[in-house]
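Example 9 (inverse folding). The structure is encoded as follows.
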């Protein structure tokens, strides 16, 4: 089974900031085969539609329940349908100046579980820009894909999962900037997560995570860590076949809020 991970960008000019990792999952082994740059979000949409495969995407698929109630009548569908109601600036102004992680009101339950940043924050990282671009991508793909955990799985359609690469790097006790990180992933995974699951990072894919100067490209590295946790959850929990069932990594509260706030797939 082909599995993809993507480091997404919501920037006005995303060139050089969107990377895709392609992996192949067979039984209990993932082979990371290729890492490549995606010039534009339109190109990414094409790859997603045409692949008919599972994708791990590293942007928030929804917003905290407080803002969903306040502005979208507690409906994720309404939130998605509003993708073209705002300019980039007016979307930012919907939430005001929010510091990531300062207030639980500004966090989804899944963000808290991941120790992630608020998806509507403007400082120190403008996460709302990622959310702005990601919502448009989901809106334009909606008729052609299934989005976890909001939809039902459809035959011959790609399946989209929210992931958070930083959590994967932290779990494996690796720094994405470490030149040797790709080579250590398989060993660290067996020692810290599951000794029954094998990960092979090919030389070609490891090379694809380096820039022209031979230094680690953070976007390319994160696309790899967008692919790996999704592949593991598909293997370990048969995630592709059990969308209506709470996976072991999700808390009861996350699961209760999933239809509004979404759910990020993670190792545990």
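The amino acid assigned to each position is listed next.
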């Amino acid at each position: 089974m082909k599995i993809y991970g993507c480091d997404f960008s919501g920037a006005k000019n995303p060139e050089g900031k969107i990377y895709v990792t392609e992996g192949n999952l067979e039984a209990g082994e993932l082979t990371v085969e290729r890492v490549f740059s995606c010039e534009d979000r339109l190109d990414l949409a094409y790859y997603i539609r045409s692949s008919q495969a599972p994708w791990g995407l590293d942007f928030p698929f929804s917003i905290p329940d407080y803002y969903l109630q306040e502005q979208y009548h507690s409906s994720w569908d309404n939130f998605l349908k509003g993708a073209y109601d705002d300019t980039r600036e007016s979307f930012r102004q919907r939430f005001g100046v929010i510091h990531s992680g300062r207030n639980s009101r500004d966090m989804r339950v899944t963000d808290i579980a991941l120790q992630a940043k608020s998806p509507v924050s403007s400082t120190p990282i403008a996460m709302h820009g990622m959310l702005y671009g990601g919502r448009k991508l989901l809106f334009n793909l909606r008729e052609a894909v299934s989005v976890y955990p909001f939809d039902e799985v459809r035959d011959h359609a790609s399946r989209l999962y929210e992931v958070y690469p930083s959590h994967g790097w932290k779990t494996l006790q690796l720094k994405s900037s470490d030149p040797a990180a790709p080579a250590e992933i398989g060993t660290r995974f067996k020692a810290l997560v599951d000794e029954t699951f094998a990960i092979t990072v090919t030389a070609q894919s490891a090379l694809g995570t380096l820039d022209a100067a031979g230094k680690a490209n953070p976007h390319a590295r994160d696309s790899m860590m967008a692919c790996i946790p999704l592949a593991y959850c598909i293997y370990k929990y048969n995630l592709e076949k059990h969308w209506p069932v709470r996976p072991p990594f999700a808390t009861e509260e996350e699961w209760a809020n999933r239809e509004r706030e979404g759910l990020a797939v993670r190792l545990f």
